[in-house]
Amino acid sequence: MPDHTGISKIIDKVTNVGKDKGKDDGCTNWIVVQIKNLKDSSTTKQTVVGASAGLLTGYATGKLGRTVGYMIGGTILLVNIANRAGYIKINWNEMNSDIEQAKKELGKKAEKELPKLLEKAKDFVSENIVLAGSYIGGFLIGLSSS
User: Domain ranges in the chain?
Assistant: First the structure.
């Protein structure tokens, strides 16, 4: 039976991002304060800030997504070529077993955490409809222009 402790540690790190209990870096609190202050600002300011943030993240997502896609695709091609040429030997049974284990663990975590995350997102959007709407619009424009 393969050892899945490495996969468990990776999944724990990914699902616990930003949840360091007892660690306060100040950045998260600053962002929360700024968003709360923005909630009391004018509609115009909320629209400009939301659209600007959306535009920047949309553009960055488009550029990074394309780059990551090339990297992952190229890696898959190189690994397959190296495997076929005999430079490396891949234990497909162990790899499939590891993938299935990771899917199970990730599914359990998602089942537990996803409803809370969706509820928080719904609350944020309903409280900041102007900001969220302009962010989405800016994101789509930035994504399409990348």
Answer: 57-146
Residue 40 dihedral angles phi and psi, to the nearest 5°:
-90, 0
Helix (H) / strand (E) element for 138: namely helix 129-144
Distances, alpha carbon 11 to alpha carbons 59, 63, 81, 95, 113, in Å? 28, 26, 29, 16, 13
Is the torsion defined by CA of 73, 76, 79, 80 positive or negative? negative
Half-sphere exposure of 31 (CA within 13 A, CB side): 6
- Considering the chain, what percentage of its residues have pLDDT values greater than 70? 81
Start-to-end CA distance of the chain, whole Å, equals 46
Among residues 32, 52, 54, which one has the least CA distance to residue 44? 52
Q: Is 134 exposed, middle or buried (0-12, 13-18, 19+ CB in 10 A)?
A: buried
pLDDT (tens digit, 9 = 90+) per residue, 113-128? 989 999 998 998 888 8
Q: Classify residue 90 as left (phi > 0), alpha (psi -120 to 50) or beta.
A: beta
- 106: amino acid identity, one letter: L
Total-model pTM: 0.64
